[in-house]
Amino acid sequence: MGETLNWLLPRVLLAFTGVVIGALAFWWAGQVVTISLLAATVGLLVAVGFVFVVDTWRAHRLLAWLKGAMQDSAPRDAGLYGEMGYRIERAVRERDRSIEWSQRQLLDFLSAIEASPNGVLMLDANEQIAWCNHLAAAHFSLDPERDLHQRITNLVRSPAFVGYLQAGSYAEPLTLSNLREAGLTLSVIVRPYGQGMRLIISQDVTQRERADAMRRDFVANVSHEIRTPLTVLTGFIETLASLPLTNVERERVYGLMEQQTGRMQTLVSDLLTLAQLEGSPRPGTDRWLALDPLLARLATEASMLSAGRHRIHAPAPTGLEVAGNEAELLSGAGNLLSNAVRYTPAGGDIHLQWRMLADGCGELAVVDTGPGIAREHLPRLTERFYRVDGSRSRETGGTGLGLSIVKHVIQRHGGELRIESEPGQGSQFKLVLPAARIREAEASRLPTETPHPVAR
Ligand code: ADP
Questions:
Q1: Which CATH number fits domain 288-442: 3.30.9.10, 3.40.718.10, 3.40.50.1820, 3.30.565.10?
Q2: pLDDT score of 3
């Protein structure tokens, strides 16, 4: 019994200890699972919360970028919001590029219209200014910004313009003068386009109109100048045919007829000279003429023309050469001398002078002691057919074209005609030649400024 107990007791104790340890182990394992589940749940919640917070933060960043000017790049985040930002930014950049391209196109287009030599003005269907270039603004005295969307007829009130615009028949352009800017003449063309819109093109034709008016005046003047001697001649011819004249009377009539034909010849010859001057190229600077023989020839011709009625003073030798057209220079200076001879009363003095000016230009002057010219006539003297005293001019064989020829000649040589005159004080007509057209002839030297040889 004791042995059996000895054998059983340790085994029971061992089994009990095993059960206790097993039970304890089982309990511990249960605890671990619970804790693990709990930890996993907490971990999951933390992770979800973190993702939520991060996404919300990214969404706010994207929203802030969208609300702003979108100049910087979109937030470069990972995930959905990052992708959305990238896509939106790409779409926006593409849109910006397309807008920029269209704007550049528009600006190029507007600059092209701005560069147009014509005024361009766009009117909307209510006759309000939609756009105009600066030239149109200048033509119609508009302010290209302030006057936008204003009715054009409130700003350009010329009755001719308003009537033309509203008549709606634009086959012929409108010639418009007497606008706010005095002296401006415009040619205006209107072209309808789009939905009741109109394009107005304006062109400054002031010069063209002036040239047309001058041409008309010129033709009228020439006709008048030719008709007068023709009428006189016709009268003489009728007289010769119908009246029995003595030889002396007939001689007188022939003389007068000769005078009239001479007048017409001079006129035609002056007209031809003018036409030639206008139609031929400018004299080059490579043809050099000795000045002294030219001056001597002019003085001789003046003496012949004066036929001893005046004292003609020739200049001292200059030792210079001038570049130009000899025939033109002779004709220009010859006209000045011819005027001096014709307008200076007998007994007067006529000086032909040459001097170098301080700036290197050369001045050929014809100075007379004639009646002089009132100040108000001086600016118009070189106009064709302008005369201070018409009858005196015709009496002395003048055509009214002499000074126009002189002005043309000197301008073609790059110089200018200067006129100084006062009634009772004689006249000075000066041809100023540019320095580039004057040089010293070989082996001669002259001071740059020679004193004025005339003591008045
Ligand atoms: P015209 O053939 O009539 O002389 P010009 O063109 O030569 O034409 O001159 C224009 C006008 O200038 C002349 O009609 C004359 O009245 C005036 N004129 C020109 N030269 C002189 C001068 N030396 N003295 C006074 N008047 C002059």
A1: 3.30.565.10
A2: 64
